[in-house]
Amino acid sequence: MCGIIGYCGKKASSEVLLEGLKRLEYRGYDSSGICVDSPEGFKIIKKTGKLKNLLSIVPERPFGHNGIGHTRWATHGGVTDANAHPHTDCTGKISIVHNGIIENYETLRRLLKEKGHTFKSDTDTEVIAHLIESCYKGNLTKAVLEALSLLKGTYGLVVMHQDHPDVLVGARNGSPLIMGIGDGEMFLASDAAAIISYTKQVIYLKDGEVVTVTPDGFQTVDLDEKAVEKDIDVVEWEAEAYEKGKYPYFMLKEIYEQSKSIQRGMNGRIDMELATGHLGGLNMTPEELLKVERVVIIAAGTSYHAGLVAALLLENLARIPAHAEIASEIRYRNPIIEKNTLYFAISQSGETADTLYAMRELQRKGARVLGICNVVGSTIARESDGGVYIHSGPEIAVASTKAFTSQLTAMYIFTLIMARLRSMSYEDGSEFIKELTAVPAKIEKIFRNVENINIIAKKYCHTESFLFLGRGLNYPVAMEGALKLKEISYIHAEGFSAAEIKHGPIALINERTPSLFLVPDDRLHDKIISNMKEVKSRGGKIIAVAVENDEAVKGIADDVIEIPRASEYMYPFLMSIPLQFLAYYAALELGRDVDQPNNLAKSVTVE
Ligand code: F6R
């Protein structure tokens, strides 16, 4: 969602801020702005729309060495220039950028107005600037701390004050903020992407921490002003990992990265000799794992779909009752925490509010929750009781692709561990490993025939509605395919169990509503063929993703996307790749903004 960048050092801050904002675009936003110091006072420039609108009005000669910048995804107050950040107090000497939501802002705003403060925007953020103004007695950090004590809600924020030209004050509660350490320069940002081209040395702030930054150092305190020692981390990825490179879109780059990212997720985690897996971060002994009687997975969106596949796999192979639930639902239905149930929170960003708050609620009730995250140092990764990084590398496109298959990889290895602790034989474990480790090469094979998918996407992308149909492990994959198509091409799409359509959705079938069937050569193959015939006989067009040379499928489908043959458990990997390409090419053909679709944000940090 919103993005933050703050800079103090020797460089022209506007350049650093604009470069940072460019790298934060992927989070999704509808306006942007910067504030930089200058001898005549703060220069604040903000504009609705894409960053290029802001760039077009920033003067060529950059001013000042201190500054803050922001990309806003509107929550309180419409998408207007006035509501874009940064926001200032009455004196114009205090400037602030903020991510998160201040829940008591209406009360505070009323009280501040009664005291004579005048507001220029409809945002909750502006309240913070005025609060700091009313608390300020010469020490910016103290004023920020006092203001924070009056706030209810979430924030990641950075503040600057004209009387302290070399100082930035940052604070975090529920919205990520990291500090980047350079040589005679310091950065504050909502994520590493914003600062990676300047420094790889970072400090992850925790909730309730406030940091005062100058070009040469920093001081971190808690909300009671007690000093807090911080460790410096090094970002795992090079700057190129955050760039498009030779690809026109991040999404395409990330789809193509999957053979490598899946491999990376397996590195060091497969034990060929014992035919099992190894996930050190789980923080659980084999004895503890053996006591697990149920697995519950919580997640949102694409991560939820990965959770659905994982739950089916765990039941199938490890014979442990398992299910996946939408995180936002579990939190508010007062879930029963059973003894010996193990919970997983799956989240690419590790910051999704729905998943994070659900995890906290489960933990509060005594559950052990393991995190499956991509972003190192993210809140879910830090607050979970153990877990696994999926190592898929920075995922910048709003539509999640490589994170999905990497989440599957981690959960497949977990399933292997659980299955081998229980009834899975050594031979079956070895076979599973053989199949899993063969997935990257099979994905490479799919990459060799994407032109066919491009042609199919062009043929069907002018349709208004699409059905995605699968069964078993591929039913969640069908849901994921539908999500991918709708979010980036805006074509209405729904995923169903192929068997279920005759109970309702088949009413939608006509020549303008194509159905995409996922047809692995497993025990449900013939059943799916029957479902295809049901659609065909009602005049529906059929696209099938099927294994090479499946003549039965070819005889019915209007178009076929072929994938390599595999064991039935590996098809979720192989089926999802063509669906990602299909969505990508459809969106491209329709002229959509593939990486930053309408209304969406990469990391949804509000409920
Ligand atoms: C879809 C997509 C979203 C996310 C969802 C959860 O392409 O990206 O549906 O999967 O917002 O995000 P994370 O995994 O970061 O918790």
- The parts where pLDDT drops under 50 for at least 5 residues are none
| Helix count, DSSP H or I runs of 4 or more residues | 19
Helix content range of the residues, please? 25-40%
State the secondary-structure class.
alpha/beta
What is the beta-strand fraction?
15-25%
Please tally the β strands and state the result: 26
Distance between the termini: 12 Å
Oligomer kind: single chain
From the alpha carbons, calculate the radius of gyration and give it in angstroms.
25 Å
Strand line-up in the sheet with most strands: 3-2-4-1-10-9-11-14
Shape: globular
Structural notes for this entry:
The chain has 607 residues and is α/β, with parallel strands linked by helices. The protein has 19 helices and 26 strands. An 8-stranded antiparallel β-sheet has the order 3-2-4-1-10-9-11-14. Strands 5-6-7-8-12-13 form a 6-stranded antiparallel β-sheet, with helices on one face. Strands 18-17-19-20-21 form a 5-stranded parallel β-sheet, with helices on both faces. Helix 3 packs across helix 4, helix 4 crosses helix 5 and helix 13 packs antiparallel against helix 14. It is globular and about 75 Å long. The protein starts with a strand and ends in an 18-residue tail after the last helix. The model has no long low-confidence stretch (mean pLDDT 95). The structure holds fructose -6-phosphate (F6R). The site of fructose -6-phosphate has 15 residues, from helix 9 and helix 16.
